[in-house]
Amino acid sequence: MTAREFDTAAPEAVHRPELEKFGFAEWRRTAVIGSVLGGSIAKRVLRTGLRPSRRRTAMAAGVVDGFETLGPMFVKLGQLIASSPAAFPRELADACLRCLDDVPPFPAVAAREIVAADLGRPIEELFAVFDDEPLSAASVAQVHACVLADGRAAVVKVQRPDIARRMIVDLRAAYRLAGWLRRRSENARVANTEGVVRDLYEATIAELDFRNEADSQTRARENLSAFGDNTAVAIPEVYWDHSGPRVLCMERMYGMPLDRFDDIRAAHPDPELLIRRLVKAWVESVVVHGLFHGDVHAGNLWLLEDGRIAMLDFGIVGRMDGPWRDFVRALFHASAIDGDFRPVARALRELDLVDSEAGDDATVGRQLATALAPVLKGKLAQLDMGKVAARLVEFGKRRGAFGPEQLILMGKQLGYFERYAVALAPGWRLGQDLYLFRNVFPDEVTAKAAADGVELPRD
User: Fold this and answer.
1) Distance CA 386, CA 414 (A)
2) Among residues 13, 444, 451, 429, which one has the least CA distance to residue 211?
3) Which of 118, 170, 215, 295 is the catalytic position?
4) Is 295 a catalytic residue?
5) Phi and psi at residue 328, in whole multiples of 5°?
6) pTM for the full predicted model
C-alpha cells in the first residue's frame, strides 16, 4: 500500500468507539484509577510532610507516580500535561516531565507476532535482520532495528499488544472522572478537563492506526523538497510495503538528539544555521503546506552524522487549514517584511474574529500592531506564541469568538524551538529572519534582503 492508496482505504484495525460509553469494565477501571491515584498522592504527601509549601509539589509527584502505575494511557496524559504547561499548575506540568522518559519494553516474541500478523508474512521473509532488543520503548509502541531483505537499514515501530482496547477503557474512565472534577473544582473547570480528555481521545484514535502517521510522514517528506532546497533537513522515508495498522517501518537514521547542546556545538560548525534551517522548513510546513510536525521535542529532532537535521516521529501533527494559514502568513509578513498589520486584520475578519463594528482594517491593524508587534519583533527567547495566542483569544472573546486552537499548537512547537535557540543561537530573531520566509514571500524577501544588504544562506 502507498500513501495515496491509503487515502481511500478504510482502517481495518481501529474504529471509533464511543467515548461516553460506560460499562462494567469502565466502572472497575475507575475504581482502580481512584485507588491508585489516591494512594500515590497520600504516600507522597505523608513522605514529604504536610507543610503547605511542599504539599502541592508532593501531590503533583503523587499524581505522576499514579500515572506510571496505571499504564500507557495515563503516561500519554502526563505527556500532554508536560507539553502544555500554561494550561496546568506549574508543579503538575513539571512533575509530568517524567512521563517523557522511556517505559519498559514488551517481549520481542510479541513484537514478532504483531509484525507477522499485521503484514501477513513470516518475519523471516520480511527482514534479513530483526533485532529483538528494542532501541526505545514508549507508551504506545516500541522501536526495533532491522534490515530489509534488499539490505536497506530500517527501524520498525510496533504497537503494544492489546493497547487499543486498554486505552479506550482508560479514556472512558478518565472522561467520567474529568466531568466529576469539573463539577467540583474551579481549577478543573478552567483547565477544561473534559476537553483535555476528548482531545486526547481524538489524538489516540488517529495514533492507534499507524497508517495515519505513515501518511503524514510521507506527505511531510514530499513537501520538504517542494522548492528544491531544504537539502540539509531530513525526514525518514516510510517503507509502505513493510507497514500496516500496527506496524510502521522506515529508513534508519543515525545521530543524536538536539538537546545534547555541548555535543551539537562540537559536532556542527554553525549551530545557529542548523536551527535556522530547521525552523525554515517547519515554518514552510505550517504556512505553505498546512501539515506540520506537532511534537518537536528534542527526542524527535536529531543532528545526523552527515550534518543534516532530521525530524522524526509524526505521530502528532498539526493541520493548518486555509484561513488560518492566511492569518499566519499575514502575521509573519507584517513582522518580517513591512510592519503592515492591515492584512492580519482582514485575515481575522475571515475567521470571524473581528465584527463589522470594530472599525476598518487600518483601525484594527493598529490595535493588533500595538498588541502583537512588540512580541513578534523580540529575540526568540522573548517570542512567546502563548502570549500571542492569549492576546488573540482575548481579542476574539470581546467579539464572541473562541480561541485559535491551531495557533496554540503552533505556539507550543515554537516554545520548543525557543529552548534550542537560546542554547545554540542566542540573539537570533525568528520573526525578522528573512531566510525563514524565502519560499513563503520570495519576491518580497529578495527585494528586502537586497535593500538591507543581507546575504541569505544558499540552503
Assistant:
1) 9
2) 13
3) 295
4) yes
5) -65, -40
6) 0.80
